[in-house]
Amino acid sequence: MKTILQAENLTKVYRVGSVDVHALRGVSLDVEEGEFLAIMGPSGCGKSTLLHLMGGLLTPTEGRISVDGEDMTAASDARRTDIRRRKIGFVFQRFNLFPTLTAEGNLRLAERIHAGGRDNDKEAEGQRREVLKLLKLEDKMHHKPLELSGGEQQRVALARAVINRPAIILADEPTGNLDTENSAIVLNMFQEMNYRFNQTIVMITHNPEAAAMCRRIVQMRDGQIVAPSTGVQL
Amino acid sequence: MDNLVVNNIRQRPVRALVSVTGVALGVALVMLFTGLSRGMSNDMQRRSSNLRAEIIFTRSGGMELTSSTANLSTKYADELRKVEGVASVVPVIRYPFQSGRGFGFEMIEGTDWDAYAAMNGVRVVEGRAPQAVDEVIVDETKAAGGKNGVGKSLSIFGGKPYRVVGVYSPESGARVKMSLAAMQDALESPGKCSYILVKCQDGVAAEELARRIGAQLPGNKIQLTRDIVTNIEQSVPYLGVFLRALVVLSAIVSGLVVMLAMYTTITERTREIGVLKALGASRGFIVGLIEQEALLISLLGLVVGFIVSLAAGYLIHRAYGLWFEYGWRWALVAASIGVGGGLLGALYPAMRAASLDAVAALSYE
Ligand SMILES: Nc1ncnc2c1ncn2[C@@H]1O[C@H](COP(=O)(O)OP(=O)(O)OP(=O)(O)O)[C@@H](O)[C@H]1O
Ligand SMILES: [Mg+2]
Description:
The structure holds two protein chains of two kinds.
Chain A: E1 3-16, E2 19-32, E3 36-40, H1 47-54, E4 62-67, E5 70-71, H2 77-87, E6 88-91, H3 103-114, H4 122-134, H5 150-162, E7 168-172, H6 180-197, E8 200-204, H7 208-212, E9 216-221, E10 224-231
Parallel strand pairs in A: 3-8, 3-9, 6-7, 7-8
Antiparallel strand pairs in A: 1-2, 1-4, 4-5, 9-10
Helix pairs in contact in A: 3-5, 5-6
Chain B: H1 4-11, H2 13-49, E1 55-59, E2 72-73, H3 75-82, E3 86-98, E4 105-111, H4 113-120, E5 123-127, E6 135-139, H5 140-143, E7 153-155, E8 161-169, E9 176-178, H6 180-187, E10 192-193, E11 195-200, H7 206-216, E12 220-224, H8 232-235, H9 239-268, H10 270-278, H11 283-320, H12 328-354, H13 358-362
Parallel strand pairs in B: 4-9, 6-8
Antiparallel strand pairs in B: 1-11, 1-12, 2-10, 3-4, 3-11, 5-8, 6-9, 7-8
Helix pairs in contact in B: 1-11, 2-9, 2-11, 2-12, 9-11, 9-12, 11-12
The structure holds adenosine-5'-triphosphate and magnesium ion.
Residues 14, 16, 21, 23, 41, 43-49 of chain A line the site of adenosine-5'-triphosphate.
């Protein structure tokens, strides 16, 4: 199997005033293509930091990351942005849709950014329809985020992440703002994306049930992985 | 429309309105001032080009069409008549007066009507020529609209009313004229005038006659009518500098207003900018988005500014008789300051947005 993401011995130190905060203390992690991976651990253990490093939003203090064969560690900010544009889709706890745009506008914006500012082509059109169908969003396209439920918003956010078929989706507590029912729906959608498109997903979650849906769970504590590759079979 | 830029502007209509107004103001200022200077200059040019006299004789010390001292003795008129080649001479007093609405001033000329009319091909089209000391004649522009027409009265010197007894055409020199004697009386300068118009006999070159007059009546200023600076931009000192300063100030105003608007915009949308970054938007893309918004605001401001200047120019003309003439060149200048100022003003906020830290922006409340 192909390794989509490789993280080697990552450390991340935040400097707050004169104090060093060691958010990550040597994290190594490989993610295979088509994997649906959960990261769990107590608050402040460094989960988000790791996710941001993997997505190139941060640079590690030490260590190496490569995504789909492209080294992000040595890359400039512009280069990391470019890798992110082509290879990574983010899903956040707070949905983070653009409130002035309809669901469709949000998707088109993501497509436009993915296409490097150009307008969407035919292929994107077809992809979008397929994704929307899977996420049962077809009749929600002309709604603005505030006219959608939390679950629907997160489905649009997932659609936005998946629509450009990134090499990997990075989700930071995607069900953290949802009730049980909507959480279940959204998690099912993640699973569906993983299953139908062989979409690689790394998901931070506090929810054991969510983690149980994943093929692999990584446990973190104090900036380290404590239980790597604990296989949970489906 | 499902467009981030347009929707962002619609989201905050008051702020958009304020910034559009700011740009519009800058544009309107430039348009109105340059339009006024051009309009007045063309107006003066039109009027002075109707003078048929080739030569203007004044005391040294200068004669501009805007000057207005009665320091020249009318006795020179008799001397001038004796110079060979002179067909006719007409002494004129020129004096500024506060026009009706208390905005700016106008010129009034005192001259012997029949001589002036005969020399310059001006005729009375309504009423008659001024005779009594409280009578004036006005040109058609001044009379237009009936406000200052025949039978109306104008207040000219110290609030004393003057009756309009006639209307003349075409426009020539000052729009209001009275008799030389009446004006000398009013200004308490008997036997004086501001300048003397000299017409050449047929076949006599104006330059040649001017030289001859200079030789026979030395120490005075002899100018050819066609050389008199009729371009107000040149005759009003520093007007050009003023206009240029105005343009720069307008550009700065437009720039600052848009800058402020964009600055609050990006602060308000910090998290959205973080999301854009997470989606992989390049610096150029983010700068582009903000500049597009600034461009849209500036263009709106431009349109509003043009409409305002046209409307204001028309209304001011109606109310005060000032002339506005808009030229393409200045419209282009106004347009480029509006848009250029806006784009430049937005550049700093745009660059700041583009270099925000993505993670910090994403966690911004
Ligand atoms: N920008 C920052 N500056 C300073 N310290 C930070 C910064 N971001 C995170 N930290 C610190 O790094 C550590 C790891 O933070 P991180 O956000 O990765 O934790 P987490 O596992 O995602 O927690 P949670 O489950 O609460 O989201 C924490 O101690 C946190 O206070
Ligand atoms: Mg976190």
